[in-house]
Every structure is written in structure tokens, then in C-alpha cells.
Design brief:
- This protein is an alpha/beta fold.
- It folds into two domains: about 325 residues, Glycosidases (TIM Barrel, Alpha-Beta Barrel); about 60 residues, no CATH class.
- The protein is about 30% helix and about 20% strand.
- It has an eight-stranded parallel barrel, surrounded by four helices. A three-stranded antiparallel sheet has the order 12-14-13, with helices on both faces. Strands 4-5 form a two-stranded antiparallel ribbon.
- Helix 5 runs parallel beside helix 6.
- The longest helix is centred in the last third of the chain and has 21 residues.
- The N terminus and C terminus are likely disordered.
- Bound molecules: 2-acetamido-2-deoxy-beta-D-glucopyranose (NAG) (7 copies).
- One 2-acetamido-2-deoxy-beta-D-glucopyranose (NAG) binds next to loops.
């Protein structure tokens, strides 16, 4: 009760304080400052039942530092009544009655969440994009090509533009902007391309809107499950999971070549994007944990160090496909509220993370980042500083950096 009324107060406050922000373009290569957050699984609650930290969708999307909310997950493609199952942890507790049943209490296990549908539309009015993630770590069922195509039809009927008499639409008439494939088991590899391809053809059915196809691969590259789909179908972005793996973000170091799976490997993904990905302009997101959680989740890196990694990954010449940062998940971000805005400030250039030498003769407020990424052995602590700067000073630092790089090039 308390939670519910707080949430609706937050909706009102959000509606009053937010004007419609300029729409960002998810696929434009110019947008390298995008943030996405997964919402629905309430990851903190899953490990700590005394912490109900998942707020409603509107509260999540109206955060000015968030562009995309990825609703997670459709956990199965075949539930009761032959319809996919959506699991949103504590966010929606009612179910559809079986279509055509004379028994009003003959419930399916298909969530009926018109209030979330309303909030999807409200989020979209703010210029935010709402995606839906399919799969998740627990999804393991294999499918034939025919089943995969049939499921694409069903997902579109449930979450795409409303058409005809389809009886089970969890979000009512709201229309999902994008579909994210988060299949993590090898059994899901075959025919995932058939599913993705079929879903993509649906996008042309409603020309007045843009729809997106994305995936959430693990960081070892190429992804063991999704690569077949990613190399044969056009995906707009990958939210790469730089956690729970040897290549997790904690293993980043300024000096390391990013060409192996055993440490941070955005460079491998960049090469993959330009050589193997079907869409050579696919956006690469650095996917991170928004807070540390108890085992088995590993790979949390504190904000100041993520800022350092993100800053280094924004280099246009090294990572032209870089698109931004994605966060697992919304409840984690609520436990660690400085994380998303702190990263966003780096993405948008409000905050510059620079090498000390680049700012030595520049008069700005500066703060040392004291803990090096990956432990003391990888990077001298004082190497990077965080500077809160005005636009013109940020430009000076950028120019100095450029001169440094040119200088190095001349020397070697
Ligand atoms: C977004 O950017 C893409 C790629 O540059 C472009 O094709 C598309 O027209 C843009 N969309 C809008 C709505 O501006
Ligand atoms: C993100 O980048 C685009 C392209 O450079 C820019 O137009 C937009 O204003 C930026 N967004 C923010 C929030 O700074
Ligand atoms: C669980 O959450 C409660 C309330 O926020 C907190 O006091 C407690 O320390 C948390 N437990 C763990 C294991 O994180
Ligand atoms: C959603 O998934 C969680 C985690 O797998 C599970 O514990 C829970 O029972 C599921 N909820 C519903 C309504 O199916
Ligand atoms: C749902 O029921 C209606 C009428 O009972 C029927 O016309 C419709 O075809 C059914 N839809 C599906 C998908 O079964
Ligand atoms: C009750 O619902 C199930 C699906 O959940 C369906 O198979 C069954 O036919 C329904 N029974 C009646 C009496 O409508
Ligand atoms: C990295 O991991 C992927 C996925 O497991 C594997 O296919 C690939 O061969 C590995 N690459 C290297 C260089 O070890």
C-alpha cells in the first residue's frame, strides 16, 4: 500500500517536472551517449527480500539520465494456453482469463498489466524508448525454425501494434519500441536467426513508428548463442554483459590490448562489428551492474572507475560503434543512485575524465580518482582525475588530448 501510493506520487511529480525532451535517435551513429536500464526482475529483491527496491516503470523511465528501459523478461515462449510467459517479479499480479472460457476464474498464467501499458505510453511521450527483453538466464528451450517464426508472430501480436481480436495483450494497446534477445543457453542458438528475421519483417507493418532489434550477449566474443542471428539479421545494438565473465569490466586496464576473452574486450566487439556483424553500424553498449550484489553475480565496478572505462571507450577512432552504457538492473540502480547519472555525465561530456598531464596547465576544479581499476597493479592511482568543467574547458582538454596522440604518433 505504502509502496503503491509513493509510486503514484512519483508519477505526478514526474509529470509536473518533466517536459518532453528532444527525442534521441537510437540508431544514429552520432548518438554515443545513450543509457539503457533493465527493469522488471527486481534483482535486489531476488537476493535480499527485505529490500523492495523496484519502482514502477514511469518512475524508472522519467529519470532524466535514462533513455531506454528494457522490460525483462519474457521467460518462456510456451506457457498455458500456448502463449508466451512474461515475468515482472512484483510489478503485475493479475492474469488473463482463458479466451472463450465460461468460467470467469479460469485464469491463464499470462499477466494482464494495463497500468504498465499506460505508463509505457507516458514514458514514450517523454521521448523514452521501451524495449522488451526475451529469454533471460533461465530460458533453455530449443525450437524448430517453424516454431521460431510462429513465436515471432505471437510476440508481435502480444506487444506490437494492436490488430484484430488477439485476446492476450499484457500491456493493452501500448506498443513496445524494441525487442531484445537475451538467450544465454546453447540450446537456444539454432533457429534464433529465424525468429529475429521474422520479427524484423514485422517492423515494416507500421511505417509511422520506428522499431528496434537488439541483443544482450555475454562479453566473450563472438557470443556462443546469439552470433548466428547477429551475423545474418540486422540488429541495431548489443547490450554486452561485461559481468559474470572473465572479460568483465573490472579487468579493464589502460594498457591492455582488448583482443582476448580473458580481460575487458570491447576492442574485440568493435572488430566483430565491422567484420562479422550483419549490421556494420550496430551500436555497442557497455553493459554493467548498477550495484554489487551477493554471489553468483560478479564484476561490479564502482562508479569512479566505470567513468574511467567509459571515458576511454568513447574514443571515436578506436570504437566508432560505441553507443553508450546499459545497467542491470533498475532495482540495483535504486540501491546505488549516483551510478546512472554519474555515467551519463561522462557520456554527455558534462564530466570529463582526463589524464593528469592533459589538465596540468588548465585551471579547473579537479579530484583524484583514488582506486585504480582492477587493483593497484594495473594502473597508477593518480593517473586519471575527474574534472567538473565548463564546455569551453572540456574542449581545451580534448584538443590537448588530440595533440598528445599526434605527438605520440610522430615519435613512434
Ligand atoms: C536516425 O538515424 C538514422 C541513421 O543515421 C537515420 O537513418 C534515421 O532517419 C534517423 N531517424 C530520425 C527519426 O531522425
Ligand atoms: C547526445 O548526443 C547527441 C549527438 O551528438 C546530441 O545531439 C545530444 O544532445 C546528446 N544528448 C545529451 C543528453 O547530451
Ligand atoms: C538487505 O536489505 C536491508 C534493508 O535495506 C539491509 O539492512 C541489509 O543489510 C541487506 N542485506 C544484505 C545481505 O545486503
Ligand atoms: C518470476 O520469476 C521468479 C524468478 O525465476 C520466480 O521466483 C517467480 O515465481 C516468477 N513469478 C511468476 C509470477 O511467475
Ligand atoms: C478469442 O475468442 C473470440 C471469441 O470467443 C474468438 O473470436 C477469437 O478467435 C479468439 N481468439 C483466439 C486467438 O483464440
Ligand atoms: C481453462 O483454461 C485452460 C488454459 O489455461 C484451457 O486449456 C481450458 O480449456 C479452460 N477451461 C475452460 C472450461 O474454459
Ligand atoms: C572467445 O569466446 C567465444 C565464445 O565462447 C569463442 O567462440 C571465441 O573463440 C573466443 N575467442 C578467443 C580468441 O579465445
Amino acid at each position: 500500500m505504502l509502496f503503491k501510493s509513493l509510486a503514484s506520487l512519483a508519477i505526478m511529480a514526474g509529470a509536473l517536472s518533466q517536459s518532453v525532451s528532444a527525442a534521441f535517435n537510437f540508431t544514429s551513429p552520432a548518438f554515443r551517449n545513450i543509457t539503457a536500464v533493465y527493469w522488471g526482475q527486481n534483482a535486489v529483491y531476488a537476493v535480499n527480500k527485505t529490500t523492495p527496491l523496484q519502482y514502477d516503470l514511469y518512475t524508472t523511465c522519467s529519470n532524466p539520465s535514462v533513455d531506454v528501459v528494457i522490460i525483462s523478461f519474457v521467460t518462456s515462449f510456451y506457457g498455458k494456453a500456448g502463449v508466451p510467459i512474461l515475468n515482472l517479479s512484483d510489478q503485475c499480479g493479475t492474469y488473463f482469463v482463458y479466451n472463450g472460457s465460461t468460467n470467469a476464474n479460469n485464469y491463464t498464467d499470462i499477466l494482464s498489466c494495463p497500468q504498465i501499458g499506460t505508463q509505457i505510453t507516458q514514458c514514450q511521450a517523454l521521448g523514452k524508448k521501451i524495449f522488451l527483453s526475451l529469454g533471460g538466464a533461465t530460458y533453455t528451450s530449443a525450437w524448430t525454425a517453424a516454431q521460431a517464426q510462429d513465436r515471432a508472430n505471437t510476440i508481435w501480436a502480444m506487444f506490437g501494434p494492436p490488430s484484430g481480436n488477439y485476446p492476450y495483450r499484457p500491456f493493452g494497446s501500448a506498443i513496445i519500441d524494441g525487442y531484445d534477445l537475451d538467450f544465454e543457453h546453447s540450446t537456444n542458438s539454432a533457429n534464433t536467426a529465424a525468429f529475429a528475421s521474422k520479427l524484423r519483417t514485422k517492423f515494416a507493418l507500421m511505417k509511422s513508428r520506428s522499431f528496434y532489434l537488439t541483443a544482450s550477449p555475454q562479453c566473450p566474443s563472438p557470443d556462443a548463442v546469439l552470433n548466428q542471428a547477429l551475423t545474418t539479421v540486422s540488429f541495431d545494438a548489443v547490450f554486452i554483459q561485461f559481468y559474470n565473465n572473465a572479460c568483465q569490466i573490472t579487468t579493464w586496464a589502460a594498457s591492455k590490448a582488448q583482443n582476448v576473452n580473458t580481460s575487458f574486450n570491447l576492442g574485440m566487439w568493435q572488430t566483430w562489428a565491422k567484420t562479422s556483424s550483419f549490421n556494420k553500424n550496430i551500436k555497442l553498449f557497455i553493459g554493467i551492474l548498477a550495484t554489487s550484489l551477493p554471489a553468483p553475480t560478479t564484476g561490479y565496478l564502482a562508479k569512479a572507475n566505470v567513468q574511467k572505462v567509459v571515458s576511454a571507450s568513447m574514443s571515436t577512432s578506436l570504437y566508432p560503434n560505441f553507443g553508450g552504457v546499459s545497467f542491470w538492473d533498475s532495482s540495483c540502480a535504486n540501491l546505488n543512485t549516483p551510478m546512472i547519472p554519474g555515467i551519463r555525465d561522462v557520456l554527455t561530456g558534462k564530466l570529463v575524465i582526463a589524464a593528469k598531464r592533459d589538465v596540468e596547465s588548465t585551471s579547473v576544479a579537479e579530484r583524484d580518482i583514488l582506486t585504480p581499476v582492477g587493483g593497484a597493479s594495473t594502473l597508477p592511482a593518480g593517473d586519471f582525475i575527474e574534472v567538473k568543467v565548463a564546455d569551453e574547458v572540456a574542449k581545451m582538454i580534448k584538443n590537448k588530448r588530440r595533440m598528445h596522440h599526434q605527438h605520440h604518433r610522430r615519435n613512434f
